[in-house]
Amino acid sequence: MVMNQIIRERRKALGLTQEEVADYLGVSTPAVNKWETGKSYPDITMLPALARLLQTDANSLLSFEEDMTREEEERIIGRAYKILEEEGYEAAYRTLLQKMKEYPDSFSFILSGALFLEGGLLFLDDVTQKERYLCEFEKLYRRVMESEDLEIRGQAATLLVSRYINRKEYDKAEELIEGFPEMTFQKKQLMANLLTDKGEYGKAAEILETQLLMDVINAYNRMMSLTQLSLKEGEKEKAEYFADMCEKTAEMFGCSKYAVHAAKLCLYGSLKDRDGCLEKLKLLFSSIEENWKPEEFPLYSHINVKEGGVGLKAMLPGILKSLKEDEEFEFLKDDPEFLSLLKEQEARK
Fold this sequence. Notes:
Elements: H1 3-13, H2 18-25, H3 29-37, H4 47-53, H5 58-61, H6 70-87, H7 89-102, H8 107-123, H9 130-144, H10 150-166, H11 170-178, H12 185-197, H13 201-232, H14 236-252, H15 257-270, H16 274-287, H17 316-325, H18 336-346
Helix pairs in contact: 2-3, 6-7, 7-8, 8-9, 9-10, 10-11, 10-12, 11-12, 12-13, 13-14, 13-15, 14-15, 15-16, 16-18
């Protein structure tokens, strides 16, 4: 962050007007305005007084200490812990707050420091004025929301949303949640938490069940990939284990019957297991005759699926193409039973 941004943001954070800054320094209000818009800069002799007014230091104004390293963060937090043990909570609080003023844009440090202090507050019984501290921490989390780092901003938002829900400030909570990227876990979970607290249990359940189903599908796909990877590494037993886990996961978590059989079919094809391939092919072709209806499975009873379920027949052309062209099924190309199965399915397309 460059000097003009630092001056503007520190002034606003302290609730000062440009006129008040000008009066304190003995300059005109337009001069301060030019500093904040980057059209000019304060005289170097004014920097110490300006830094004191903005509760920062000259190095920060000049952007010499814009951020800190992870090692510095850990060292400062470690020192604060020692101060907490030896001098008490207030001393540790003031130490970290001073460092946050010196590094106003080190959002990772501000978040870590606030979490450390709030954690100490929860475990110490002899600290008075806890509400005052909690109010300050909330301000710090709101500052962290200015970070460009999505992960850091997400952590701060999660903490704020929990506070808003606890205080029944649902509009504030929802506004923050809506700012999350659409497909993030945090957004879905926080929205479910909000709806639950509002008593909208059906909507909350639908969000959680949909997220669960997506997690199951992702886990299944990763195990399918691990099956293929194990085969490439020559690890047959591991490949069989992952394929077996795919089958069990699909059955346990209400996936389509096609998913139940697909992993073992790929495994048997790679292993050139004729009987295994033909057995799974028959089961797989039979499975796509039925529409998949996840809402009939207890885990997904709140999910709204189009009437009649999810049709799987549209997958048939792609399956037949793979069986004819994929190298792993090349060994079956002259097998009469295999060819008969393909011909039967071709007639159904």
